[in-house]
Queue: 4 jobs
Job 1
Amino acid sequence: MEHEIWFTAILNKLLAGPVSSLVARLGVPAADAAHPIPNYVAMEILVILLILAGAFVLRGRLSAESPGKFQHLMEVVVQFTRDLSSEIIGHGSERYVAMIGTLGIFVVLCNLLGLIPTLETPTAAIQVTLGCAVAAFLYYNLQGLRQHGVVGYLKHLCGPMLAIAIIMFPIEVVSNFGRLLSLSVRLMANMMVGNVLERVFGEMIPAVVHALFGSGAIGTVVPVLFSALVPIIFMMLHIFVSFLQAYIFMLLPAIYISMAVAEEH
C-alpha cells in the first residue's frame, strides 16, 4: 500500500464508505475498503478545489476600474489562451478558449503541487494524465461532429479523395487513438522522471557533501550552501517543466481541434 498523505487520509476518513460502495457497484471494488481513495485522486480533488476557490475569489473581486493582481494574472492567462487558440484554430476559436484554458490551468497546478511539502504531483500517475487525455480526445471529436455532422465527420476522416478513403480512414482512426498515448505518456513520463531525479539527487546530497568536503566540514558554510543549491536547481527545473508540459497540453488539443473542425476545400 502506498504511503497515504494527510489530505488523502482526510478524504478517506470522510468518504471511505460512500466511495467504496460506489466503486463496488461499478464492478471494481477497492482493494482496501477503508482507504479507497489513492493519493493521485486526492491531489486531483485538491486542485479542483483550488480552481473553484480561485474562481469564486476572482468573481467577487472583478473590477474594471481597479483590478487586483490576481485579476491581472488571470487576464494574462485568458489573453494567452485566446491568442494561442486564434493562431492555431482561426475563425471561431473563441468557443474553445474555456476548454483549452481549463486544461492548461488544471495541468500546471497538478504539476506544481508536488513542490509543496507533504503533497504529491498527481500528473506523475498515468491514471491522471490519461484522464486528461481522454477529456481532450472526447472534446475535439465532439467538436468535429458538431461542425460537420456524423456523416460529414466520417467523410472528413476519410481524407480529401474518395479513392484513398479505404486507406485513410483506418490510418486516421489509429492516429486519433494514438493521440491519447501521446498526450498521457508524455506528461506522465516528464513529471515522474522529474520527481525521481529530485528524490535520488536529494538522497545523494549527504554522501556528496561528505566526499567533497569531508566529515569535519558538515555544518560549515560551503557544504550548507551546496546542500541548499542542489534542491533549488531541481525545484527551478521542476517549475520550468511544469509550465512547459502545461503549454504542450494546451497546444496539442488546440491543434487537434483545428484539424477536427477544419473545412475541406
Job 2
Amino acid sequence: MTVIESGPFAPLSRSAIRHAMSDSSYQQLGDLSIYESVASTNDQLWQRLEKGLNTPAVCLSEHQTAGRGRRGDQWQSPPAGNLYLSLFWPFPANTLQNGLSIAIGIGLINTLKAHGISDLQLKWPNDILVNRHKLAGILVESRFGNQHNTVIGVGLNFKLPTATRDKIQQPTTSLQQLCTEVPCRNELAGHLIQNMIETLTLFQARGLQDFVPLWSQYDALHNATIQLISDDVTQTVKAQGIDENGALRYEHQNQLHTLSNSHVSIRFAS
C-alpha cells in the first residue's frame, strides 16, 4: 500500500501528483520528474529534448538557483514550499502560438478557482494577480524545427519569506496570505498539470478562439491607465483589451494600437 503524504507543504511527490490526475492526462506524459534543486525547470526540459526525448513531459523542483521570468528577469525561487513547474509540449510545426500564455493563464485561474481561490485576474500577457499583487507567473519558450517545441513554466507562490519579497520589484502575494486553508501542493500541482494538458490540446486544435471571449472577465488591465516601458522609453496609455490574436490593444493619443511584444514591461500608472 502506497502512503501519500498530504498537507499544503508536504514534499513534492510523484505518486501524490499522479493520484490527483486523470489517467488520460497522465498517460500523455513521457516523463514526470521531481528534483530537490535545479538551475531552472524549463532548462531541465530543454536538456531532455537535446537528448532526443521529445514526448510531453513535466519537471518540478523544490528550489531553482536560476529561475527566470519574462524578459529574462530572475524568478525568486527559494526552497520555501512554492511551486516551480514546467511542461514540455511538442506542437506540430505549423501551429500558431499567438496568445498561448493567455490560454494557459485562463486555465490556471480556473484550476485555482476550483480550489476556492477568488478575485484572480490576468495581467497581459502572463501574470496572475489578486488585487494587483502577483500570485503566479507564466513563461512560454519555443524552439522551431520539425516540431514547434514549447516549454511552459509556471511559478506559483505558496508562501514567500520576507527576505524573498524584499527582492521582488513589484507587489506580490501568496496562497498562505490569501487562503484560510492553503491547498495541498501536490494535489494542486496534479490538477494544474492536467489542466495545462487539456488547455494545450484544445489550443493545438482551435487556437485562441475559445479563450478570447473569456478574457474580459479576467482582464486586470481593463480600461486601466498603464505604462509601457521599453529600454529607456516609457509611454502612458490606456489598455483596451486584446485582439483575436491575443495582442494587447491600447489607446495612445486618441489612436488604437496593438502590442504583441512580450519583452515590453507593463506597469499600472496609478
Job 3
Amino acid sequence: MSCAVTVFKYFSVVKKNCIQDEIIYENISMIHGSTNIAFVNLFKIKNSINMNINGKNAIVTGGGRGLGKAVALALANEGVNVGITGRNEENLKMTVEEIRNTGVNAAYAVFTVDNEIQVKAGIDQLAEQLGGIDILINNAGIGDFGSIEEMPSETWEQVIKTNLFGVYYAAKAVHPFMKAKGEGDIVNVASTAGLKGGPNMSAYAASKAAVVSLSQSMMAEWRKQNIRVITLTPSTIASDMSIQGGLTDGNPDKVLQPEDFAEWVRDILKMNRRALIANGSIFSTNP
C-alpha cells in the first residue's frame, strides 16, 4: 500500500507541473525479496508545450456566420482579439457582440472580398482597430452549384472571383503587417472539392483547386519570412451554405459541425512555431 501511495504521489507532481518546459520526477520501484530495496530513477521529461495565442490579433473573413463565426469565437475563447469581415452588417454586429462577451477586443469591416480596393481598406481599418495582425483566416467564399451546360458564365466567373481572388486579395493585404513583425499565420480554407471535382460543382471545385495551388505557392514563398501558410481542405460541414445547397442534412450526430472545424483551426494555430501543417483535410467519420 505504501508503495502505491508513493508512486501516486510522484505522478501527481508530474501532472501538477506539466506546464513547465522540463520536469524532473522520481519513479519509485520496489523490489520484493529478502530485502526491500527502493531504486530511484531520475527522468527528465521534455514537455512540448502548445503555443499561447492569448493576446494575438486575428482577422476572419466571412466571420459573421457559419464556419467563420465558429472560428472567430473559438479564437476569442483563447484570448485572441478578432476582427471579422463580411457583406451583411447586421450579422457582423451581432457576432462582434458575442466575441466581445468573451472579454477580448472585437471589430468588423463590411466589404466584399472580390474587390481589392475594398479588401485593402477594410484590412487596414481592422489592423488599426486591433493593433496589428497576427493571424488571417481566409474563410469567405460562395457556393453556386449547377451543371456546366446550364450555369450562366457570369455566375461561374463570380464564384472564381470570390473564392480565389478573395483569398489572394486578403493575403496580400495582411502580408505587409506580418512581414514587418517577422511572423504570422495565414489559414486558407479550400475544400475536398478542390482535390477532386464532381458533377454540378465545376465552378466551386475549380475555385477551390486554385486556392490549394495558390496557398501552396504562398507557403513556399512566405515560410522564409516565418509566416506559416496553412491549406485546409475540409469535407462537407453543416454550414448554412452546405445545408441550403442540399449537400447535407446537417445531422449533428453524424455530420461535421462548424465547431469541429473551429477546434481544428485553433489547435493548428497553437502548435509550436517550428511546426507547420502545410496541408490538412477533415472528414465526417460516418455521415
Job 4
Amino acid sequence: MNWTLLKRSGGNAMDLGRPNLEVFAETLLNLASQDRDILAVTGDSRGSGKLGPFGKALPEQIVEVGIAEQNLVGISAGLTAAGKKVFAVSPACFLTARGLEQIKNDVAYSDNPVKLIGISAGVSYGALGTTHHSLHDFAVLQAINNIDIVAPADNFEARSAIEAAVNHPRPLYIRFGKKPLVDLHEPGTQFQIGKAITLAEGDDVTFIATGETVSRAVIAGQLLAEEDINAGVISLHSLRPFDETAVLEAAHRSAAVVTVEEHSVFGGLGSTVAALLMQNGISRPFKIVGIPDEYTVTGSQQEIFAHYGITPEALAETARQLVAARELTS
C-alpha cells in the first residue's frame, strides 16, 4: 500500500500514524490515571489489546476473566451498574458472537453503558481465517436496540472515540484493527459520535466509508481527480447514531455513491445507506463494496482487501463504472 499517494487539500503528504489499538490503550491509560472509576476488563487480551502498560501502571483497575467472553460481558455490565466506567476488551470476532446474548440482555436491554472494545476487527487476523474474522458485528449489533457502533478511521478518530466513550450515556461498541493508519484529518477537526466527517466533496461520485477502509477511499478519490472525476469522501465512523443528514446531502450532491466497509455486504454500512436512500426516494448508481456472501480467501488483510476490490485502484474503477453508467442514462 503506497501511503505516500495520500495528500491533504493543500498538497502536503499525510503522515503514517500508529495502529489504532496502540492509540486506544495509550488514551485509556491516560484517562484512567485521572479517574479511578475507569476499569479495563479483558478476556485474555492484555497483550493483544496493548494493555500491558495499563496493567503495570494501574493493577487495581484491570480485571482479567480469561477466555470467557460471556463472563466478560456480564461482569462488565455488573461493574457498570455499580457505577464504574468499564471498557470490555476482547477480539471482535468472539466478543460479538460468543457474548452476543449478554450484549443484548445484560448491556443493551438492561441499559448498562458498557464500552465494548472489539479488537483485531474485520479481517485483521488475516491468515487465521474465517473463524477469526468479524464480518458480522455491524449487522448483529445494528439489529439490537440501544447500542451505539463506532469504527474509527485513523488515530485521531480512535483517540477521540475513547475520550468520548468515557462518559457516553449509552452502551457502545468500538472496533479496532491492527495495522498502522494514515492520519487523515486536518488540525482542528471536530469529532462527535454520530456525526460523519466529510474529507472531500464531489459531485461526480461520493465514497462513504467506515473504519480502516476510509484511507483507501481517500486515495481512490485522488486517483480519480487526476482524470477530472470529482470524488467526495465521507468518514462515517458511527453506524449508530447514523448521520442521515450527511449521507442524504452527499447523495443529493453526487451523481453516484459507493460505500466501503471491512464487513459483510449484508447488514452493515452499505445496507444502511441503501435503505436510507431508497426510503427517501433518492436513486443513484450505487455499489456496496465489502466482503461478499462467501468464506473469505486466506491471506493478509491487504491481500484480502485486494481480492475483494477494497483497494484504491479497484475503488476508483468501481467509481468510473458508476459514473459512466450515469452518463449513459442521463
